Sequence to fold (1048 residues):
Amino acid sequence: MTWILLDRCCEKCTHSLENPCPDYIECRLSGPLCHDDERCRELRRRRLEELRYGEKGAKIKVPMASCTLAMGAEAVYRAVEDSVKKMGLEATVAISGCYGLDFIDPWLELSAKGMPTAIYANVKPSDVPRILEEYFVKRDVGGAFALKEKTGAAKGEDKVPLLSELGFWAKQYRWVSRNCGVVNPESLEEYVASGGYRGLSRAFKLGPEATIEEILKSGLRGRGGAGFPAGMKWRITRQQKATPKYVIANADEGDPGAFMNRLLAESDPFRIIEGLTIAGYAVGANQGYVFVRAEKPLMAKRLQKAVEEARRYGLLGKNILGSGFDFDIEVILSAGAFVCGEETAMIAAIEGKRAWPRQRPPYPAEKGLWGKPTAINNVETLAHAATIMAEGAEKFAAVGTEKTKGTKMFCVTGAVKRVGAYEVPIGTSIRTLVEELAGGPPEGVRVKAVQVGGPSGGCIPASLLDLPLDYETLQSAGAIMGSGGIVVIGDENCMVDVAKFFLTFTSAESCGKCIPCRVGLRVMWSILDKITRGEGTEEDLQVLRQLAETVRSASLCALGGTAPNPVLSTLRYFMDEYLAHIREKRCPALVCRALITYRIDEERCIACGQCALNCPASAISKTEGGKYRIDESVCVKCGVCYAVCPVKAVYKVSGAG
Amino acid sequence: MVKVKIDGRVVEVEPGTTVLEAAEKAGVEIPRLCVVPGLYEGSSCRLCLVKTPAGRLFPSCNYRVYRDEEFLASTPDLWEMRRVNFELLLKFHRIECWACERKSSCPLVELSKELLVDGIPVCSECPLPPNECLLLKGELCLGMIAQSGCNAECLVSGGECWGCRGPITREDLLERAFARYKELGFDVKDVVSKAEIYWNSAPGFATVKKVAERVGSRG
Amino acid sequence: MGKLEGSDEVGVLPDKVFEGVPKASYGLLEALRRVQAVYGYLPPEGIRRAAEYVGVPFAQAYGVATFYHQYSLEPIGKYRILVCMGTACHLRGNSLNIEFLRTFLGLKAGRKTTEDRMFSVEEARCFGCCGLAPVVVVQKPDGSNEIVGRANPRTLRALIERYRRQERGGAK
Fold:
């Protein structure tokens, strides 16, 4: 059997699960520590090299995360296995998480001793044999998307850019996402080899109080949206006298357009498990829970696997690393309720009840799960905590702003060329993220607004793109940092429709417990609906504002409390669009169905009939001239014809038709 | 004991007392609907919200005091918030006071008076129980579609309601009312004629006529 | 473990169905999921069984079953089509896709399952695959998920026709 890094190097090692060595983690990389033996050092060196290049000196890495799987990564994996067998290649086929660069999914990463590590983008199964042939046989990397280093040993190196020089990578500061796309998410060994669990080990050596001090010193603020200092939350929980205490990892990432947590959990789950263990140690809790959003089951699967591996090697269970601290984790998959992201609602869900939030105070740190002191942290916060304990608070605090230190993962989606997850220092401008990292809008599209913070956030107009991404600035601009989801809205979208869309979401997700949210959001939605149908009045705007104010201040929890934000921010920055709908019964972006008409430009029409074939209302038919025409009296304005026409002969005009 | 100041009045209470309980002791009235001590923790209706001098809002039914604190319970913005909240609650409530056994002890009726919210019919103030309704005796009383707030003077004196405070304009209520008029043998046109006496220049009369016509023309 | 074919009769589920489910309050969500995996929806007896297994009152379990989106108290289709209504997917056209699906499958007036119980169409919250917007996920009868990225009426129509062919052919 192959020796792995987690095994004992020789008989002299005293570590066992029954009698763990406190230096076990440090020893994996820099050992042996308790005795001197060149053979033991060589064992580790060789294994690290095997992990890097595979046991045969050559490795093919296939990313298997939700994003890549949806783009056919499984078929690519099978093609790789097939080709390796057929070609008789001496190469290891391995899996990894994802870098977060959705626009190159599915990608492949090839490495071999002496060769530059090369990334190939948008790989189809049929491309695989050619890619493998080029890299391993011809030693030619000319067809790669990017290289991780240049060795001068391969052909075509000058044709391919270095990853570190490409705009979307160079500007990132991959602190907490360092392992995403690099390691095998199911391997504890690879996590430890990359430096994992040094944080927990150091926490044990410092003790719980000093651990909390370190987190406080780093200035780490909760990355789930509220931005509450993590160290303070842990301190308050620790100070409570009631027992038992609990820690919960909030993996209920529900903001549409946010997949930072999903990426972290699928690509580097051990970091989160380690962070939760450190949290438990710091506050004095022996049981942790991870609550995962229902729609993201692969997250739960990977986290569950990580928990099982950690248990196997004594990093969960009794007397972890000889510290005297017992800790275990239960992974729970939700069943579909956005409100579970609210801490008190999550607590109710874990208690087997309807996910109704509770009035605070008392806060969960004081009275949480089953009425006991509970510290709940977002998954990204916990990953940061583990990294801070390993690397030190100063390194974390070296970037960021005055009030908020460190980095944050942001997901940029919508009207951009490069949809993906990007980690940057807090204080980076929205423009840098949208234009430099995400590549700006596609051809022919102008950016109208940027939605920051999901349905709880606000729409920031394109003119304010230079605003820095930090909690206070965003709040005064009418948005919130939220979980870090940024949706870029192009000029072909209607801002009134966007506001209505978010209200559709929040009003449906309202748990129903309090009046302002349950009823108020529905009434606000019906006013917006009226406006999009061209039946709104200016008085409606007044009522809308008044309702928004009441719902915002009187709601029980942050779901209702922030749901009016998209409405308030669009009223603030896009009043012209509202007024056009009201005064002129016109939708400037030509989106609101009741205010537009679809027509076919018969000159452009090539009579392919796709529009008629797909029309759900059978409203399109052939004219005597052979071209197609829409019967406006039957047309339901669904837009299918517009979407399927291959020559863009279908167009929209203002007017109810 | 801790000192709680509410709207300027100070009371001493045991630590752990809710602000609502303290307010009762202090003689400050705060509206509330959902809290049932021992059964439901409250904080759902949001009517009892009070604020600290710094402006933070808390539901008084649920916030327990453990040290000296001050609250404001009767500022204009709080009353405005309560009014809007209550209107939202009423919006989806099936208002049918003429058939409701609780009409003489209904917290929604009390709140509508306290918060000056329209939309509750005169039936809510009528001293006659549902089975002694004047309509059952063939007398055309406009109570079902008329705005309450007059303490139903006419009905107290033994006569029927003429609707002098104005029409109710909520269509779902008007639909049910006119359907009942029809059921009891009244012609909706007669109802409209009687209503016209006081309502002919009331803005809401058009809605009343529209619904009457709709219900009347049904089979 | 398959659906009870041909009838809505609900038997008593053996403990094996709940293997791995913690007998604690936080096991309820998974227990209900297992019941739904067997019957295709949550009949009251199934909810009762789940409640009994994890040790919570039936009324509480019923409250949970009616609260979360993924549970259905009415039979759902063999192929459960979930249309993501996240921001990116909405902006890129899923509102149009869901309407197309409903019209194409003849689902009127809020009904979410076809007459032959073959397909159901539901709105789903964000799957976190925003790079592929608009996203449609199909939960297939064999338990696997098919993720359709960059969905449009043409690909959706082809998808449904493919499933219909597979069903008719009998073979998988």
Remarks:
- Residues 76-91 of chain B form the longest helix (16 residues).
- Chain B is about 35% helix and 10% strand.
- The two ends of chain B are 69 Å apart (CA to CA).
